[in-house]
Amino acid sequence: MKLLRCSLLLLAVVAALTLAWPAAAQTDQVVYSTGQYFQNGVMLWRSDTGHIWVIAHSGQVLSFPASSYSSLPDNPPLSGVIGNRPILGFGKVWSNFAQVRDLIGPAIYQEIGFFMRIRTVGDTLYLTQSNGVVYQINPDNTWVYAEQPAEPGPHIISLTSDSQQISTGGAVTVSWAAHGVDAVQIEVIDPAAASLIGKLPFLPLTGSQTITVPVGMTPRTLNITLSAVKITFTSAGTLYDTVEEKTIAVEIVEPAIVENSPGATFQSFERGFMIWRADTLDIYVFLDFGRLGTGGGRVSVFPHSAYSSLPPNPYQAVPLGRVRPEFGFGQVWGNTPAVREALGWATRPEQGYLATARLENNVPASISVPDGSVIGLDLAAGRWRWLGMQP
């Protein structure tokens, strides 16, 4: 009996095969299915009936109708076992039937979905995988390859996202699987401007990544491109060869926008400034990487619960020409060394004003300062930038 080769086969629309099928009464279906590879075999599940096959390297096949496992307990989490642990139906069958565990051993890949061609010819079943491999399930519960499979070359098995349309400030999670390469890489590209928005470093061959769309980005289409990369080390340096790319288009839509005019307090410091909002009681600490009105920098937010119980500013000796921060600003500045060292001393007293604040999808997106300049906020990234003067 030929051994089952452990190559990633699953996740693509099934291509029609030209096989010399036996002349007999037959049925032919294409059914959404999932598969998972184990140390000594594979498990396959069909969504329409819930039937599970356990196909072992040894040539043996075990069959489990949905009624045989649906009421069984789930596979319990095991300490130290993550990622490839069988779950759902596979987990129930694997954990509750000792003969399955003994036959195929532990899982070595994640469960992956695909569309499987299922053909019955008399009492023989043919299960077509997404790369063209066909398992022939015989009436005596053994299996063989209907055709000898070719070893697949390096390729991307799958690239999916949990959404194709998100608002600014929202996030999209992409998942991928690749085979026969050394790493994958993700790039976020603005196709209209042919510009690179962001690039993630080399990633493992299977995984997922959440990508956040910055607040304030105008509606557009972004391409998320996955590259499968072979890495070669030579005496002349390291070579990176992209063997395949796949792209998902994600539409960035106009966010839900709310503007209000809260009372606020502003105070400038040697290397930045602070803003207090009367509507939320939050204190924003801005590190200014340029002169006031240009550039941008880092921002931190201190909610009222984080500073209200702190003691007053303990620093009394004020350098000449500088101002001692008071009240909430003083509590944050005087009791948070990182803020104090980053900002330096206050250069002017507090100044009250009526701010213009903007929310996008309930996330703070901008706030104005006393001279009418508007600050763009990306609190998820801890960054801010000047947007110009308010109208």
Question: What can you see in these coordinates?
Answer:
By secondary structure, the protein is mainly beta. The protein folds into three domains: 26-145, no CATH class; 155-253, Immunoglobulin-like (Sandwich); 257-389, no CATH class. The protein is built from five helices and 26 strands. It has helices at 88-96, 98-104, 304-307, 327-335, 337-343, and strands spanning 26-38, 41-46, 52-56, 61-64, 112-121, 124-128, 134-137, 143-145, 155-161, 165-167, 171-179, 183-190, 195-203, 206-212, 220-234, 237-253, 257-260, 263-269, 272-277, 283-287, 296-302, 351-354, 357-360, 363-368, 373-378, 383-389. The strands form four sheets. A ten-stranded antiparallel β-sheet has the order 17-23-24-25-26-21-20-19-18-22. The termini are far apart. 30% of the residues are buried.
What kind of oligomer do you see?
single chain
- What amount of the residues lies in strands? over 45%
Average of pLDDT: 83
**Count of structural domains:** 3
Percentage of residues assigned to helices: under 10%
The largest pleated sheet is described as: 10 strands, antiparallel
Rg on CA atoms, Å = 30 Å
Question: Structural class given helices, strands, pairing?
Answer: mainly beta
Beta strand count: 26
Spatial separation of the terminal alpha carbons = 77 Å
Which regions are unreliable across 5 or more consecutive residues at pLDDT < 50? 1-24
Using the alpha-carbon principal axes, give the shape.
Answer: elongated
Strand order of the largest sheet: 17-23-24-25-26-21-20-19-18-22
**How large is the count of helical segments?**
5
